[in-house]
Amino acid sequence: MFPKSTQAQFWMFENEGDLNILRSKTNVAYIESHKNEAPAGAGDGHFLTEQDEADVVFYFSVKMGEFCDKFKPPMPSYVKGTSSHYFKRFYLHNSVMNYHPKEILVTAVYLACKVEEFNVSMQQFIANVQGNQERATKIILNNELLLMQELQFHLTVHNPFRAVEGLLIDIKTRCDSVHSVDSFRPEIQTFLDSVFLTDACMIYAPSQIALAAVIHAASRQKQNLDSYVTESLFGEQGEEAILHIITCVRNIRVMVKNIPDPTPNIKTLCTRLEQCRNQDNNPDSLAYKRKLEELVDEDALLLEDHTPSNQQARMDSCSQA
């Protein structure tokens, strides 16, 4: 299923370099379109750099994980995984200066709950949000369609969790040298939580990430899965396939190992973000409120044009003519 999915066709990339090129273009495009809004003499220093944006997205990715972990009722792991996919995809083609991550974060989680059929009402969902819950409700409802559009309505996400279960069953069945396989689960979950803080889910297939998680957990338990991988799992596919999967697993584990600490100047970055963000998309700005009023006025005009009384009046005027 995965090779033919929209995820595989539209949201998988060769390496981190390809992803960074897209993000750089997004950053440059925003600055170019808003440079006239910068204060006199501020220049490009008014805006966030590509690295600044990456630091902000990473910080809010961590916050998303914490939000999902604390969610009541308890949230399934695959909902958290889907949320992360949505969040990362959104900021490939959108700058944090255009749409603030704290607003897209809750919208991504809410949409993932619906898509993954984790049935919580808006009231239940919002009860998990700190601060002004009425404002948060409006933000989610106003951004939900935007998020789906930016995802190109590719909402089905293949997460590694099902592949993990298949691997654990297979190891129990075909690998007598490995014991207490279920004891791997805590380490697997920790590893996958970390994976979603990297770009691995947009470079490697869910099955490859699952295998990396299981091998990592086994190594933490001082157990070796080398013979299982090279003989039972890929033995019939030849040395090239074995070398490929070993390279993928190694790269995924390196990405997790190299996850940076959140930048210490995140408060400064968030302050700068408030100053350079697109005010048309800031729910607290006058520009945003004016835009909403204009949309409401347009909807009212469209409604008037399609009311039966107006249609009848037009017909009457035509008959009189």
Indicate the topology.
Layout: H1 6-10, H2 16-34, H3 50-70, H4 77-93, H5 101-115, H6 122-126, H7 133-150, H8 161-174, H9 185-195, H10 206-220, H11 226-233, H12 238-257, H13 266-276, H14 286-305, H15 308-320
Helix pairs in contact: 3-4, 3-5, 4-5, 5-7, 8-10, 9-10, 10-12
How would you explain this protein's 3D organization?
The chain is mostly helical and 321 residues long. Helices cover 66% and strands 0% of the residues. The chain has 15 helices and no strands. It has helices spanning 6-10, 16-34, 50-70, 77-93, 101-115, 122-126, 133-150, 161-174, 185-195, 206-220, 226-233, 238-257, 266-276, 286-305, 308-320. Helix 3 packs across helix 5, helix 4 packs across helix 5 and helix 8 packs across helix 10. The mean pLDDT is 89.
- Name the assembly state: single chain
Number of strands: 0
What is the mean pLDDT? Answer: 89
Mass-distribution shape: globular
Structural class: mainly alpha
Count the DSSP helices. Answer: 15
The radius of gyration is 24 Å
Strand-residue proportion: under 5%
H/E topology pattern = HHHHHHHHHHHHHHH
Distance between the termini: 63 Å
Main β-sheet description: none
Low-pLDDT residue spans: none
Q: Work out the helicity level.
A: 55-70%
List keywords for this structure.
mainly alpha, 321 residues, single chain
